[in-house]
């Protein structure tokens, strides 16, 4: 199961490294490239609960196989994207279907893993599961940097051999396909997908449309209203997509809240760090990937430590420690971004990674352990929906902040070089479109005063971009700080190993 979900973790980060080459070859816009990254995360969030429910109804082994096939076929199609005007829509659509495959695969796989271990051993087991699979996210940038030197299309095609091995291992595992009774909540699935998609669209397009645009707030407000309608609908449904009764457990609610605020930083970090490294530090894709390894050193060590804390003392100490360490780590890292030195930043990157490592496995495991009266697949669907929706929202909000601040700072730099305010604003938006969307920091090659002034200002513009990224990283620190306040409200305690828990659908033999 760890091998099966490896693809889903790797694909959260691998595309960010290849972004400059994808944009240059296909001519994507800044918002278009962000949607290539975000479509995957959004589909994960929108369909995770559906994946958990399908695993219950049709059996986890069958859903793992179906999810893997959907994922790998979509990967091949992403790599076969044609050039021309259809390229952006093609890539976004099949990145979304990749996310759908991952949403089917992951909850079913995790339900099998949970079923193997008793409650008293589950913390360490899932710490290993989340630690190793989470660390596989680090392989994405490294693999992406290496494959991009050949062709960026290979970052999608690499999933084919992984999927083949995953399907063989799934067959050899002999997991049972025990099913639960019930029906599929199609209206609920449609509501949650529409609500998440519309709200993230509003956040994502705020830079292009403006925060004072009615379209921005119609999307954000309309999406949140649909999600509120989803909650009301689920409370009355006979066989709901998500059994909201689990939120009556305050510990489960706080686990979900801590996951939400932690994931506002975790997955978006990969995109923003890789683009920052390639623009402000003038790093190659391979160097940008190595930069992210500092983060994962701290993450890998802390994730195992956090699992042991969970087994011995419960989730609350690990959540408090992780959110506090993460908040401090991201804040210190933000303060060092303008030093423009990769070497000077590694202690703070590792500290930020350790904070996330302390949180991820304990919060996820404690939530699953509290699945009283619900299937593990269903509860996993809830927690993973929270995680991936937070990642989508974080990418959209931080992306909007980054583009706004970068544009303002570049305008100041260009006007300081003698360019008129109107010309500076136009050029600044073009520069921002290039560097924030793909990490393309090449000086303009055109002629004329504007192009010449921009070329002369590229060193200052790289610093402008570093300063704009500080806002993003401080925002991540604030998110972890709010997560700490949620951790304080966690009631603590360990789940009773002898508590009567309904037998999970993914019971392994």
UniProtKB/TrEMBL annotation:
The keyword Cell cycle does not apply. Its main location: membrane. Residues 431-455 are annotated as: Disordered. The keyword Transmembrane helix applies. It is found in: Cell membrane. Residues 1-495 form the Major facilitator superfamily (MFS) profile domain. It is a multi-pass membrane protein. PROSITE patterns: MFS. Keywords: Antibiotic resistance, Membrane, Transmembrane, Transmembrane helix. Signal peptide: none annotated. SUPFAM superfamilies: MFS general substrate transporter. The chain crosses the membrane at residues 34-51, 63-93, 99-119, 126-148, 154-174, 186-207, 213-231, 252-276, 288-306, 318-334, 346-363, 471-490. It holds the Pfam family MFS_1. This is MFS transporter.
């Amino acid at each position: 199961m760890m091998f099966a979900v490896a693809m889903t973790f790797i694909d959260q980060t691998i595309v960010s490294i290849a972004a400059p080459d994808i944009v240059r070859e296909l001519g994507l816009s800044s918002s278009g490239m962000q949607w290539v990254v975000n479509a995957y995360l959004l589909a994960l969030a929108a369909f995770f609960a559906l994946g958990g429910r399908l695993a219950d109804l049709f059996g986890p082994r069958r859903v793992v196989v179906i999810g893997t096939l959907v994922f790998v076929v979509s990967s091949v199609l992403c790599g076969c994207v044609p050039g021309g005007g259809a390229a952006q829509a093609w890539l976004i659509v099949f990145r979304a279907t990749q996310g759908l495959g991952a949403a089917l695969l992951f909850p079913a796989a995790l339900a099998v893993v949970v079923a193997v271990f008793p409650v008293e051993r589950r913390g360490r087991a899932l710490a290993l599961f989340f630690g190793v699979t989470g660390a596989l996210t680090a392989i994405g940038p490294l693999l992406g940097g290496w494959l991009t030197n050949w062709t960026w299309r290979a970052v999608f095609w690499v999933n084919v051999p992984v999927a083949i091995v995953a399907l063989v291992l799934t067959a050899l595992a002999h997991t049972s396909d025990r099913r639960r009774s019930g029906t599929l909540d199609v209206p609920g699935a449609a509501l949650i997908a529409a609500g998440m998609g519309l709200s993230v669209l509003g956040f994502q397009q705020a830079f292009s449309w403006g925060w004072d645009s009615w379209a921005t707030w119609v999307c954000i407000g309309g999406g949140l209203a649909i999600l509120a309608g989803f909650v009301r609908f689920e409370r009355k449904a006979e066989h709901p997509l998500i059994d909201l009764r689990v939120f009556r457990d305050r510990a489960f609610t706080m686990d979900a809240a801590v996951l939400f605020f932690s994931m506002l930083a975790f997955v978006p970090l990969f995109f923003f760090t890789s683009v920052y490294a390639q623009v402000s530090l003038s790093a190659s894709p391979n160097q940008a990937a190595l930069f992210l390894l500092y983060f994962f050193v701290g993450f890998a060590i802390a994730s195992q430590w956090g699992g042991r804390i969970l087994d011995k003392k419960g989730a609350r100490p690990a959540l408090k420690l992780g959110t506090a360490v993460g908040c401090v780590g991201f804040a210190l890292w933000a303060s060092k971004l303008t030093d423009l030195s990769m070497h000077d930043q590694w202690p703070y990157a590792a500290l930020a990674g350790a904070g996330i490592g302390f949180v991820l496995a304990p919060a996820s495991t404690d939530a699953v352990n509290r699945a009283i009266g619900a299937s593990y697949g269903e509860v996993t669907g809830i927690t993973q929906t929270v995680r991936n929706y937070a990642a989508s929202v974080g990418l959209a909000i931080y992306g909007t902040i980054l583009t706004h601040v970068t544009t303002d700072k570049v305008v100041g730099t260009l006007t300081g070089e003698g360019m008129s305010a109107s010309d500076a604003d136009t050029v600044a938006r073009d520069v921002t479109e290039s560097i924030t969307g793909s990490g393309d920091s090449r000086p303009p090659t055109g002629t004329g005063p504007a192009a010449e002034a921009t070329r002369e200002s590229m060193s200052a513009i790289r610093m402008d971009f570093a300063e704009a990224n500080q806002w993003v990283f401080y925002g991540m620190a604030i998110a972890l700080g709010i997560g700490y306040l949620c951790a304080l409200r966690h009631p603590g305690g360990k789940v009773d190993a002898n508590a009567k828990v309904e037998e999970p659908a993914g019971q392994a033999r």
